[in-house]
Amino acid sequence: MNGAAIDIRDLRKTYGGQTAVDGLTLTVPRGSFFGFLGPNGAGKTTTIRMLTGLVQPDAGSVELLGMSMPAQEMEIKRKIGLVPDESLLFDHLTGGEFLELVGRLYGLDRKIARERASELMEMFDLGESRRKLIAEYSKGMRKRVAMAGALIHKPELLLLDEPFEGVDAMGARFMKELLIEQVRRGTTVFLTSHVLEVVERLCDRIGIIHHGRLLTQGAMRDLRTGSETLEDLFVRLVGGIRASEPLNWL
Prior knowledge:
CATH superfamily of the largest domain: P-loop containing nucleotide triphosphate hydrolases
Structural class: alpha/beta
Helix content: 25-40%
Oligomer: single chain
Number of strands: 10
Shape: globular
Order of helices and strands: EEEHEEHEHHHEHEHEEHH
């Protein structure tokens, strides 16, 4: 459990002349619940895609769980779980079939993959939808089955991009409690969310990125001053919407 779960050094990525990530250096200790924050277009999703090997950086280095990307990419992928910002699932499979497939891709024995898939469907309150194709799932159901797929192989590191988006209140509460328990057991969680109240309640450490550059990182308790909330800290660093003249008709 010693060392960093994520160690990024001078990471850079440009798309068509536009810089998405600009010299990002970030360390996430093992066993932490880390909130990765920033406004829209700040570079959060691009960073996660580089961490998972979906996007190759232009420069810099990435180490996950003490292993280097891309040199040890396959070994790393066996130890991480991912919930992407868009639930790219197999729409023509049922939820149970999808989870069993994911388990098999992670190297689980067929019997174990099937058992875990069934247990996860029940745990995520998807048991009554076991015969439905994923194409028939709501957005919240898709997020829940994506989370279940990220957990089926008991990963050491979870990378979650807006995991609660579209999930109803009861489902989101269950997922939050589940993640807290995973961290208690030693899993590292790396989370992006626009809902700062959720991050403030869940995370013990945060990093804030803006225009592809890291503004701050560290323990939540050390970054806030006085009675400052996470929202206050975020607005102080990133800046709020500029004041303008009120509309006469509004």
